Amino acid sequence: MNAFDRRSVLKAGLAGLSTTLLPAGAERALADDLSMSWASINPGSFTTFIMEFMRKRGLDKKHGIALPAPIVYTSVGSYYNDFVVGNYDMCMGSWDTFASRQQGGVPLRFLCAFTTGSMVNIIVPANGAKTLQDLKGKTLAATTATGTYRVMRALLKDYAGFNLEQEVKVQNVDNPAVAVTLVMVDRADAVLVWEPNTSMALQKAPGTRVLYSAEDDYRKKTGLDLPYFGVALRNEVLSRSPDIAPRLDAAFHDSVAGIVADVDAAVDLVGTAGGLDPEIMRLAIKSGRLQFKHISMREEKGRELVKAASTMLIENKLLNRSLGDDFFAI
Q1: CB neighbourhood size of 281 (10 A)
Q2: Nearest to residue 215, comparing CAs of 198, 230, 227?
Q3: CA atoms within 13 A on the CB side of 20
Q4: Helix (H) / strand (E) containing 88
């Protein structure tokens, strides 16, 4: 089944969904206006985790949103490309990925972030590099099509004085789990990766270490959070109803609050949905590397955090220009 067929099936299936929050007779309006398709990447990721928590807790329906099961991808490139061409409505990824697409003409807006940059790391095997300088001339595996790769390049250059593409041999892979496998079987000297893949490597390959955390230098030198993964919506979805942005933003706020309030209960609730390993998710969150934090673009302070982080990307020519209000789902 191709992406367009999947989209048709999803929309047809959504017609029967309703919410107890709406008055009698309003079910059709919900199906037409406040339902949306989304996608996930397998093997399981933390984006699947927050979405499954939201759905299993009924937090989408609490706020009048109907979220079906996701369209599933194994390729990060295909995942983003299908969103760019409009094959699904809501995408989760790094804010800079969405900023570059929006500046390239893709009709989207960024709604909120729900993690910080602490989730992005360079990891090495037990006998690997002790410092960034030790990586010179070595092989680093990374998914280069991602915003994660671009942000880490800028962070390393600006805050650690390390030019990633000049100092190491970058081996591109299409899925972060594959990158982790390469370092575990001694086919790469380091991996640029994000949670829960970092915790997977630490658990399955004892001695694997975090060499560099994306947010550490940024926070030390700016005193600010580095907003990271979040939610973008196609403009067509936002035009369906003025209620979509505030309702979905509230659903993500409640989801983050629920996860942070009781990590063990959240992990147990989500279980193995989407190919997640509960113990790895538990480790990722409790280690502090995967920090769930709701940062709303409907609030000025949230927009200012993203704009502050965007300056290093603009200076490194990874974004074309400053972010305007047309990037945010206000």
Answers
A1: 27
A2: 227
A3: 3
A4: none
Task: Retrieve residue 247's tokens.
Answer: 């309702």
Instruction: Say what the pLDDT of residue 44 is.
Output: 64
Q: What is the pLDDT of residue 86?
A: 96
| Residue 18 backbone class (left: φ over 0; alpha: ψ -120 to 50; beta: rest) | beta
Low-confidence ranges of the chain (pLDDT < 70): 1-33, 43-44
- The 10 Å Cβ neighbour count of residue 67 is 22
| Residue 145, pLDDT score | 79
Q: What is the signed CA dihedral for 251, 109, 329, 29, rounded to 10 degrees?
A: -60
Which pLDDT score is estimated for 68?
92
Domains located in the chain, CATH noted: 3-116+227-327 (3.40.190.10), 119-222 (3.40.190.10)
Cα 162 to chain centroid distance, Å, stands at 25
The answer to whether 71 and 38 have CB atoms below 8 angstroms apart is yes
Q: Cα 130 to the chain's mean position, in Å?
A: 28
**Can you give the pLDDT at residue 27?**
38
Non-local CB neighbours of 215 within 8 Å, separated by 6+ positions: 116, 117, 118, 120, 225, 226
Cα 234 → chain centroid: 16
What pLDDT sits at residue 109? 98
pLDDT, one tens digit per residue, over 230-249 is: 999 999 999 988 889 999 99
The encoded tokens of residue 94 equal 């790094």
* Conformation bin of residue 90: beta by default, left when phi > 0, alpha when psi is -120 to 50: beta
Contact 215, 227 (CB under 8 A): no
Four-CA torsion 203, 96, 171, 181, nearest 10 degrees: 20
